[in-house]
Each structure stands twice: as C-alpha cells, then as structure tokens.
Specification:
The structure is a single chain. This protein is an alpha/beta fold and 289 residues long. The protein folds into two domains: 84 residues, 434 Repressor (Amino-terminal Domain), CATH 1.10.260.40; 186 residues, 2-Layer Sandwich (Endonuclease, Chain A). 52% of the residues lie in helices and 12% in strands. It is built from 13 helices and seven strands. α11 links the parallel β3 and β4. The two termini are 44 Å apart. The relative contact order is 0.13. The N terminus is likely disordered. It comes from Streptomyces luteolus.
Amino acid sequence: MPASPSSSAQAAREAVARQLRDLRKEAGLTVVQLAEACGWHYSKTSRIENALTGPSVRDIRRWCTATGAEDQAQELVTQSIHAESMYRQWRDQVRAGLRHVQDSRVRLFQATAVHRLYSASLVPGLLQSEGYVRAVLGIASTVHGLPPEDVDDAVRARLDRSRIVNEPGRRFVVVIEEPVLYHQITDVDAMGAQLGYLLTAGALPAVSFGIIPMGERRSHWPEETFHMYDSDRVTVELVSAEVTVTQPAEVAQYAAAFDRLRSMAVYGADARALITRAIDALDRPSPGD
C-alpha cells in the first residue's frame, strides 16, 4: 500500500522546517532572537520550525538574512514551494470557482501520453456523462458553498476536457470498483445515461476499462482515488485536499498498486455484463413499491 500522500506532503514541509531550525541553531540564535531579527512574534518561529505553518517566500528570505545564510535562501524557497504545492486544500482550489479547478488541469492532461485512473467511489471525470458531471459538481458546489451558476461553467469545462479521450496519441487505463456502478448520485435517467456511456467509452480504441467485481476474494484492498500522469506524477483525492506525489519511489508505489488493482479487474464482455446488470437494477422497483 502506498504511504499516506498527506504524510508525504507533511514530510516535505518538515524537511524545510528542519533546515530552517538548523540555520537558527548554527547562527547561535534563540527562537525569540530569530523572531526579533525577522520582525515577528516568537510563536511564528516556533510554528514554522514545527512544520505547523508553511513559511512564505519573504519569511524564508528574512530567516536566511537573520542567520547569515542568504546563499541558501533560493534553494529553501524552491523546496518550500514544492512542499506546499503537494498538498492543496479543496477550499483553496475552489476559491476561484469550480471552472478554474477544471481549467487548471488542462495542460497536465494534454502533456500526458498514458493516463492511469483508479476510483472506488465515482466514475472518473474523463468518462463522466453530462448528467453525471452536473450531479458531481453540484454536490461539490453545495459542499463548498459556491453559487449555483458556477456549476454550468464547470460542467462545460469538464466535458470539453473529457474530449481528450478521442484524441490520437494517448492511452487511458481506467479501473473502478463495481460499487461505483450503484452509487446513485443523480436521478435514474441520468444514472442510466452514465452507465450506457460506460458501455460506449469502454469500447474506445484508446481506453482500457476494467471493473473489479464485488463478492470475490481480493488480493489487494481498495485505495483512495488516484490519477497517474505517465510515470512522473500522481494526484490523490482526499476528503480535505488533493495531494500531488512526484517523488520517484512514491510514484513507483502507486504504479505497483495500480498494476495489482488492474489485475483484479474484468474487461470486455465481462465488464459490459457488470454494467448491464447495474442498468437492469435501476429499473427494479424499490422494496415496498
């Protein structure tokens, strides 16, 4: 199982904090003296050194000046920016609106030749139908307290981005858990359309679409939703944030996990049979009807 992505992001922040603390100690400064030299309260120094607060670029430059380590400032700034970019809270990402979140991924999608996606909860965005997209983004809008009109723009942006599955020169390997087919996040008609779209999308030349069936003994447990971009980057969706993993050893862990999950999935006719069963279940009357 890959190491916790949130832990990896915190470890990167702690590495910067440790180096800053070492600079202070090497300069013979106390926490209070460093704070006075930088012009802030000593509690801020403590929060930075304990990786509770990420330092700004200005904070790092002041720190290095106070400790006589100006030559190390740029390297620490670069490390800190990388550490903070690894962990991006959803509330920060949606501040500019849901469309901004969709648009911010376009370049990364276009620069990727092989996309690997795994989801245990939702149909991945690249294979979502319009009604399903609207339901997913509508829920996100409600959770984050965004205006309803923001959803329409975001829906169009996500659907535009999804057209990449029809462009030549790319490969999409998608694995979902079978319960995804039954998570009814929208009305019956829209769910039916989504499931029908999966039948079509799974037949696209560039798409390998697998489903891990329920009720069979597993060789690997479900993971958090993640998306691999070639072999360089992984984004992991947590409840509170999206975490970016770029360390080669960690990316390799996700690649190995994906291969195990992929080996448990069924494809082709077997996958279509699972989707058809889910479609049939939509038409069944609820108990008591």
